[in-house]
Amino acid sequence: MSLEVPPSARPHCAVHPDVLAGGTCSRCGGFICADCATSLLGDGRIYCVACAKRPGVDYLEAFRQEYWGRRDSWAWTVGMLTLSLVLGVLYSAASKGPPSRKEWLFSALFLATVPMGGAFFLGKPWARHALVATPLVVALGAGVLEPALRFQHLLAALPFTFVAVHIHRDVRSRLFFRRDVTPGALAALWNRLRNNPIARQAFHFGFSSLFMPLLSPLAVVCGVVGLMRVNLQAHPPIGRRGQAIAGIVLGVVSPPLWLFVLNYLDQRFGLVWKD
Ligand SMILES: [Zn+2]
Ligand SMILES: [Zn+2]
Fold it and tell me: Is the pLDDT of residue 117 over 70?
């Protein structure tokens, strides 16, 4: 009797019936071939293609779906600026007398940006690109109305263009506009928003407490909470142990350091407290 299993009896990939399976999916148990086997970031297991895309398995996919089409702080900022622009123009029209021709043209120039601002707030894809061009277009228009100040208008548009380009590239803003983002960019955003942000905050407070010692209790509290949240066995793993510890250490060290420095200055120069 032979124990040899004929190839026809050996398991085949559920998706590719002519390819022999190399293993099974960790979630559904289906047979998978080498082409179908998918591993995910921060997870040692192997999945079939269908299971790897499930939000319950792929935390980055779940994260992406959570923010897909959801308005971000940039959309609110642009929306609120647009609203205050409209209110500002209405207010100045109401409070002053009849506008001069130039004032009228400037109001019209600013109000021309309102559809872009509204569309950006509503997540219309064209407004994402229009936002980048808007400061320059407004500056060129203002240069036509005031040729003597053309250069100043262009200069004033520069910081706005800089911010608009930043928004255009922002991953969170791309998710609001339902634009695809690379897995790496998505992982970086997840790391910023979800990977133990309180531990990162602890480090920031700890560092700032070297200059503002009143922040040191905050650094210690955030550091302790952050340290308790570290869980490398979780899916996805929660890290930043080092930042939590650094926050605690800096928070603890900063007040005595300040006392030492103030005391030294007092002894040396009698600068701090005199009686
Ligand atoms: Zn599966
Ligand atoms: Zn396959």
Answer: yes
Closest CA to 88 of 119, 117, 110: 110
Amino acid at site 194: R
- Residue 29 CA, ligand 1 centroid: distance in Å: 6
Please tell me whether residues 77 and 155 are part of one structural domain.
yes
Looking at the structure, do residues 201 and 265 belong to the same domain, yes or no?
Answer: yes
- Residue 39 belongs to some domain of the structure: yes
Ligand closest in space to the Cα of 58: 1
Q: Copy the structure tokens of residue 73.
A: 């702080």
Spacing, Cα 267 to ligand 1 middle (Å) = 72
The CA distance from 97 to 124, in Å, is 37
208 and 264 part of one domain: yes
What is the whole-number distance in angstroms between the Cα of residue 160 and the centre of ligand 1? 48
Residue 173 and residue 209: Cα distance in Å, rounded?
A: 32
Do the domain assignments include residue 112? yes
Judgement on whether residues 46 and 92 belong to the same structural domain of the protein: no
**52 within 8 A of 32, measured Cβ to Cβ:** no
Is residue 273 scored above 70 in pLDDT?
no
* 63: in domain: no
The sign of the dihedral angle between the CA atoms of 180, 185, 186, 192 is: negative
Any idea which ligand is nearest the CA of 34?
Answer: 2
In a domain, 115, yes or no: yes
In Å, how far from its chain's centre is CA 260? 40
Check whether residue 33 and residue 91 sit in a common domain.
no
Residues 41-74: pLDDT tens digits?
666 788 998 888 887 778 888 889 899 999 999 9
User: Which pair of tokens denotes residue 40?
Assistant: 């995910």
Domain hosting residue 137, numbered range: 73-176
